[in-house]
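Appendix B, Record 12. Input sequence as logged:
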Amino acid sequence: MNFHKIALTTLAGLLLASCGGNNNSLSSRGDLVEEPIEKSTQSISQLDSVTSENGLQVLTGPAICDVRVLQINYQTPGAQPGEMSNASAALFVPNGTDPACQGPLPLVAFARATNLEKARTNAMDLSDPTAMLLMTFFASQGYAVVATDYLGYALSSYPYHPYTHADTEASTVIDSIRAARNAAPSLGLTLNGKVMLSGYSQGGHAAMATHRAIERDYADEFNLVAAAHLAGAYQVSQSLIDGVENPILGVQYFVPFQITAWQKVYGDVYDTASDVFNVPYDGFIEELFPVVHYPADLTQLPAVATVPAEARDEIFKADYLEDLATNPDNGTTIAAKKQDLLGWDPIAPTKLCSGSADPVVRFSLHAQAAYDDFRSRGGDNVSLVDVNSTIEALHGDVLTNDPATYYKNYHSSYEAPLCTWEARKFFDQYK
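Logged structural output:
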């Protein structure tokens, strides 16, 4: 199973009308828009069957609790000052007779990896990679979990997703915690007040942005006891500059998504799309992500199997790439620097996890750089785990016989469960 694949679900229903800005006060952040929606219950036997089939039970352990899967819809700010909208989230609630399932329970707030499908929700069953990891590693072991879908996805009425935008990632995760607390009484869920943060890939960036915001602005509201940031891009600006020479797998999706999102947030990243993108992409790229007609609309872009450098050159103008690599006043670079997450000091115990051969989120640019930055100012509460040796031990035959497949799967499949395991072991010390 691909633990971080682009979901193949179809559009489940009409999105709510765009609310842009409305009359809701910022004081309503985290308020529920409607009653929680019960989606399913995954039994202990179902959970154990999946972890046995995928060889994960050695990491997860046998399930202790059934898991109720609910969808919540809550109020949260948009990207512009004073703007309110809504976002949805999955709420995974342990259920069963074992005392570990009954509470009071700690709450894990989890931010998911990049997904290109607008209808995508975390409130899924065990067939979904993200939902499966959250249920088997956390909820089945006595953690309540809330996992935001972000602005612009699933039930959110927001007209776009502010991709890799630190401020709205943080506000959306923070308000998911509030929403989970608001939903808890009607669900018979008793929380112990302890909050833990985690996320993978884009979610690693979102979780770290949330961590910084909570300790800076909301320390009196949230008892943040631990954080585990997994394979996230913490130096976004350096990623883009490095990506000119070393484009990542999926450059034709992720980088245009970032740039066009920042243009919608800030309005001054570029003058026109044709300043950045080649014909015909300049004519539709600004409205493509996240994708409504998935996966059909992605056929307008170079195929996922395209060599990254060739995909980069097909999408982007050569003079734009040169300016991005060399000009510190490039509009994209200025916007990207606002998303960088170094230069602050975590208070809660913090674990960083990544793999040093990750071809998508480079270890040295992100996990290692963040660790070195935090430790340089005495951050002895921050640890770093490199899971590369375990990945090689488990999948070395693929590396030997089919290196292209190995590196294609590294970030999307091999790394995610191992870093989730590191997060669970870490959180077990503080629950």
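DSSP finds 14 helices and nine strands in the chain.
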